[in-house]
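Key result, reporting period 2: structure in, sequence out.
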């Protein structure tokens, strides 16, 4: 979306003037600011974006953008070009780009907290939704808005508190997000009847409310299951990551707060084809609210082939450390890697469905560790595996990408700062992933994206299609 795009009518412009006071009116919150709010910035871009899509479809609608093989059909639709995802594109060699910007570029360009070194996830959310890098004031305003929206309904608090402690944290997380459907602006407006042009506004409001509440939900689950059940209140003058760290009980360590800022930023979005992103988009295409859509995405994220992977990596590293002790020699590492492969298992955290080089998200976490915990024994182990594993996997010959992905590092960082409860790691991933999938849901409603409905065939029908006899 070009920054020069403007609203198509004076009426639309007037409905999104810069707010000048702190108040609540018709369920919408207004904050004193001389800069454009996120909602205003996005609203200004919608007409131009809709026209761009219409023109593209009109002039190139019959253009073939790819072909589908039977292997792709039976291989989980791997690599089939069929989704529209504005926020990020994943290149096999270059890694992820958020609105065209690499992770190092985002680390440099996105606003930071006073005295902080890592980008604020508020800034990435703004970038993903609008395509623009926000100002420090715009990010500060967004932090304040999320803090103002963060209170949980009493019944949701009670629902979380009544969950048995042995119910997996991700199941509790999904239950709480689903229950927030009761608060949905979109669902209430749809039931009353609203014009399609209003869909995005109510989806925006739901998304903002939902994102604002996720740290408190996550912290309440964590404190109930692993600690004393007491959750600190949101500090209205602090940023999103600080409040998450504080509610979890780790804000006394400023480096952990910085880690949360980095973690939430780099885990947020990874194209639209992964399970959590695609599921959120798919369910949203049926005009389900942001709450129901994200809850569906979280249920996909909970799977061991998706968000659970970082937990599996840490478990494997701990087992390796127990087996080899303090001997981190190349020979010992190589020996353990081969024992893992020869037992029929994969090396967790290595390989990726798309990437064919080291994941830039891994690199950003490695850089963080080199700066903050260079002498940690587990980080030294991770570094040795990084040195040896690509060669072993290449020799093994069954891995297309022998390099580490983001999951190979994140668990080690969390456990260093004392967040050792591995079953909770995917909840943190879920908080972050919401920042990536909800901007696209807002965009989908703004541009009038249709319900997703691909064509399916039976095996017999596919056989006939390719001329095979079974």
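The corresponding designed sequence is given below.
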């Amino acid at each position: 979306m070009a920054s020069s795009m403007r609203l198509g009518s004076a009426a639309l412009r007037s409905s999104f003037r810069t707010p000048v006071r702190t108040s609540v009116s018709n369920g919408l919150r207004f904050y004193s600011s001389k800069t454009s709010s996120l909602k205003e910035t996005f609203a200004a871009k919608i007409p131009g974006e809709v026209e761009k899509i219409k023109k593209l479809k009109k002039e190139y609608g019959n253009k073939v953008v790819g072909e589908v093989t039977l292997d792709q059909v039976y291989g989980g639709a791997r690599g089939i070009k069929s989704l529209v995802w504005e926020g990020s594109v994943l290149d096999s060699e270059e890694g992820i780009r958020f609105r065209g910007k690499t992770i190092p570029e985002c680390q440099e360009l996105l606003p930071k907290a006073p005295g902080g070194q890592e980008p604020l996830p508020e800034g990435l959310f703004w970038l993903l939704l609008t395509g623009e890098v926000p100002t420090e004031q715009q990010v500060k305003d967004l932090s304040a808005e999320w803090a103002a929206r963060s209170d949980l309904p009493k019944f949701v608090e009670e629902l979380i508190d009544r969950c048995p402690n042995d119910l997996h944290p991700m199941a509790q997380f999904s239950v709480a997000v689903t229950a927030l459907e009761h608060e949905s602006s979109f669902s209430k407006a749809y039931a009353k009847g609203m014009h399609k042009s209003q869909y995005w506004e109510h989806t925006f409001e739901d998304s903002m409310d939902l994102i604002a509440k996720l740290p408190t939900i996550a912290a309440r689950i964590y404190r109930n299951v692993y600690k004393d059940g007491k959750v600190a209140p949101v500090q209205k003058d602090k940023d999103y990551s600080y409040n998450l760290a504080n509610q979890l009980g780790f804000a006394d360590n400023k480096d952990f707060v910085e880690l949360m800022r980095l973690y939430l930023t780099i885990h947020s979005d990874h194209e639209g084809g992964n399970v959590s992103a695609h599921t959120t988009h798919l369910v949203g295409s049926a005009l389900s609210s942001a709450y129901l859509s994200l809850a569906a995405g979280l249920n996909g994220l909970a799977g061991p082939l998706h968000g659970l992977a970082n937990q599996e990596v840490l478990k494997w590293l701990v087992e390796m450390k127990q087996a080899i002790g303090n001997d981190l020699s190349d020979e010992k590492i190589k020996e353990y890697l081969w024992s893992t492969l020869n037992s029929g298992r994969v090396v967790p955290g290595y390989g990726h469905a798309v990437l064919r080089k080291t994941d830039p998200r891994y690199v950003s976490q490695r850089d963080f560790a080199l700066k903050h915990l260079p002498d940690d024994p587990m980080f030294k182990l991770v570094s040795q595996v990084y040195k040896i594993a690509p060669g072993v996997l290449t020799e093994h010959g069954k891995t297309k990408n022998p390099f580490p992905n983001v999951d190979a590092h994140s668990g080690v960082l969390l456990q260093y700062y004392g967040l050792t409860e591995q079953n909770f790691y995917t909840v943190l991933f879920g908080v972050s992933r919401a920042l990536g999938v909800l901007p696209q849901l807002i965009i989908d409603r703004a541009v009038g994206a249709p319900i997703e409905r691909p064509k399916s065939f039976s095996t017999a029908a596919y056989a006939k299609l390719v001329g095979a006899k079974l």
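The beta strands are 23-25, 28-30, 88-91, 95-98. The chain is about 55% helix and 5% strand. This case is discussed further under Risks and Mitigation.
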